[in-house]
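Is this the right way to post structure tokens for a design question? Let me know if I should format differently. Anyway, here goes:
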């Protein structure tokens, strides 16, 4: 008998790529997609996908895992718990953070985070490097070497006391990114406005979680976006703005892109599915929905969807920031903290894909190819993961087989991460990831997880085309127009 032509053949699926949807078979050999067609030859393993939808594995490009937060608190997940939750929801690659805090040696930080990921991750992973202490050594030695070693994106905070950078420090960081080739990602909110609002609110007794949303005025996003966009223009350094929450923020990004600036953006499910009213609950319960920037208004949700439709935003990431609703996490400061003392963030790795499948495919907003674009091919392009994010021969066989009819009501009992709660509890989604394949291995089958901790692989990345400068220098940076000063 002839040997099977493929290791796996997924037969008669509705195959969804970022550009097309068609019925067909997908053959997998080893770690790669080997063929797409009709009537493919026999596989060692045959998966009947009649009535099912096949998409690329999700790429979640913004997740805080086993990380010391901006507020200085270690979040709840291990690499194993976070990535198991991701895999169960159809995500096969994650870009998390290696987070430097004041006084920390960046090279050591990255070595430490890398060791944890290598030991625990069940999906493929990379890091954005959080730089909070841009010393000479960090900027001149560690960062260039780390970018060369395949960490081609940097994250900077414009708020949070412990990690935020001043404008000059941001510019220093962007100059290194430009020289070495790296994307700069930014948490952009005006720190002073937030601190001032929060202090006034608390002084006057407005301490409940719902006031978190008032402490982050919309204009704090607007101001910080304008500032980072102009810094990007000054240095001709591409920037990705994380977790866009407002209509005005989306408009700034659209305008910047219209000017030809390389401004990229993500939003997150919590901004698409919640408004600030979600925080308004009895007692401290609202803490479960406290994240930054906060959820906004219905008009913002519409603007964010529109920005995704128009391509102004390239991805929807979870911003998974897991803190349990107990004294180890959200209630660290006691049972009745004021909103400033509550850790910011929600768990999201597990349900990002099902929530978006439901909204975009089952409920029909923009359809399957756009779902693939924002969950997989968009982040793959933005962060230069050329083997990931789509279904085509030669790419990594990261695949998700969906039952498009299965209805699931999300609840805390389903949660696989260590927060043991989901902010989406009670929402019913249509469409569920049944089988998840990571580089040719079936890692999720129904309820069963078959991936060993440590089987995920580091994704070494160069900068890629999104992170390349345009070459258009502002006059003051251009030696031909600035009396010959070489500044970059
Ligand atoms: O509330 C959030 N987003 N927490 C995580 C830290 C961050 O802002 O990236
Ligand atoms: Zn952030
Ligand atoms: Zn974040």
């Amino acid at each position: 008998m002839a040997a099977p032509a493929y290791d796996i053949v997924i037969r008669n699926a509705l195959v969804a790529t970022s550009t097309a949807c068609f019925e067909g078979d997908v053959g997998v050999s080893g770690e790669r997609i080997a063929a797409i067609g009709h009537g493919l030859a026999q596989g060692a393993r045959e998966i009947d996908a009649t009535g099912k939808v096949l998409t690329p594995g999700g790429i979640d490009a913004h997740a805080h895992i086993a990380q010391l937060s901006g507020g200085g608190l270690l979040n709840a997940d291990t690499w194993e718990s976070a990535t198991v939750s991701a895999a169960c929801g159809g995500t096969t690659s994650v870009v998390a953070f290696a987070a430097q805090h004041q006084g920390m040696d960046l090279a050591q930080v990255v070595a430490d985070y890398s060791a944890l990921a290598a030991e625990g991750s069940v999906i493929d992973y990379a890091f954005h490097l959080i730089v909070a202490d841009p010393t000479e050594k960090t900027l001149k030695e560690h960062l260039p070497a780390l970018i060369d070693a395949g960490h081609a994106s940097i994250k900077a905070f414009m708020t949070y006391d412990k990690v935020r950078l001043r404008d000059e420090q941001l510019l220093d960081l962007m100059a290194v990114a430009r020289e070495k080739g790296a994307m700069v990602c930014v948490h952009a909110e005006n720190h002073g406005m937030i601190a001032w609002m929060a202090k006034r609110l608390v002084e006057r007794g407005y301490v409940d979680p719902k006031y978190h949303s008032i402490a982050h005025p919309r204009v704090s996003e607007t101001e910080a976006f304008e500032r980072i966009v102009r810094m990007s223009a000054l240095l001709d350094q591409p920037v990705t703005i994380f977790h866009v929450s407002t209509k005005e923020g989306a408009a700034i990004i659209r305008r910047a892109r219209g000017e030809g600036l390389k401004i990229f953006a993500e939003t997150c499910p919590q901004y698409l599915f919640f408004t600030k009213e979600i925080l308004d609950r009895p007692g401290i319960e609202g803490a479960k929905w406290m994240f930054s920037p906060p959820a906004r208004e219905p008009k913002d949700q519409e603007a964010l969807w529109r920005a995704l439709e128009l391509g102004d935003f390239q991805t929807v990431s979870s911003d998974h920031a897991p803190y349990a609703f107990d004294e180890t996490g959200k209630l660290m400061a006691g049972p009745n903290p004021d909103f400033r003392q509550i850790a910011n963030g929600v768990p999201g790795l597990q349900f990002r894909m099902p929530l978006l499948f439901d909204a975009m495919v089952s409920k029909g907003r923009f359809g399957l190819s756009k779902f693939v674009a924002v969950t997989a091919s968009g982040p793959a392009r933005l962060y230069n993961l050329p083997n990931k994010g789509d279904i085509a021969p030669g790419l990594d066989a990261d695949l998700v087989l969906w039952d498009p009819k299965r209805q699931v009501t999300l609840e805390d009992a389903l949660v696989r991460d260590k927060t043991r709660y989901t902010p989406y509890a009670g929402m019913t989604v249509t469409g569920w990831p049944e089988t998840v394949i990571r580089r040719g291995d079936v890692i999720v089958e129904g309820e069963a997880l078959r991936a060993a901790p440590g089987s995920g692989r580091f994704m070494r990345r160069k900068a890629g085309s999104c992170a390349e400068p345009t070459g258009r220098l502002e006059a003051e940076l251009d030696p031909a127009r600035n009396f010959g000063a070489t500044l970059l």
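Format looks fine. Someone answered above. Worth noting: The radius of gyration is 22 Å. The chain has twelve helices and 17 strands.
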